Amino acid sequence: CARNIRWKRVSLSASIDEQLEIDEKTYKTNLQIAGLARESSRRNLDPAIEAVVLLRSLEHPDTVGYNSVLKAIARTSSPYNRDAAKQAVALLEEMENLNREQMENSLDEEEVSMGAPRVRIKPNCRTYSTVMDVCARQNSPTSAEQAQDLLERLKEKYDKTGDIA
Q1: DSSP SS3 for 107
Q2: Which of 12, 113, 123, 128 has its CA 20 to 30 A from that of 149?
Q3: pTM
Q4: Distance (Å, rounded) from C-alpha 32 to C-alpha 108?
Q5: What span, in angstroms and rounded, lies between the C-alpha atoms of 76 and 40?
Q6: What is the rounded distance in angstroms from the CA atom of residue 114 to the CA atom of residue 99?
Q7: pLDDT class for 144, splitting at 50, 70, 90?
Q8: Which residues are CB-neighbours of 90 under 8 A, at least 6 positions away?
């Protein structure tokens, strides 16, 4: 389900009305994704798949949408669904890459300090916690290592930037 996609960026010169329209669309879609996350379960993978499709339909996705999809994936994870951890880690890496790209190419320091909606995608503590939860539910020796690696990555990020995510 997880695939790399280049998202269209919000023009920083867009009018306030245009930005509000984008945020309204994203907000409504995020509500749908959150509802699907609640419906997802080990026995019902369809809502999680639909949540990924909705996330991919967003022109301007954000952290909330990604975290809701990760929650849906977490609810489907079990020792019998080995793909859940791969999908969750892939989405986390996609978020990290999109955030890095956004910070390096799209925004100046003032815009970064303003936070959302300019900084649309940024993994946070909930993101990392959910991905670690998915890994832990895999109930295998490698899943524990994956969760430990994520924790170390988060610690290194904090040591380097002081950002508590």
Answers
A1: coil
A2: 113
A3: 0.78
A4: 32
A5: 6
A6: 15
A7: confident
A8: 2
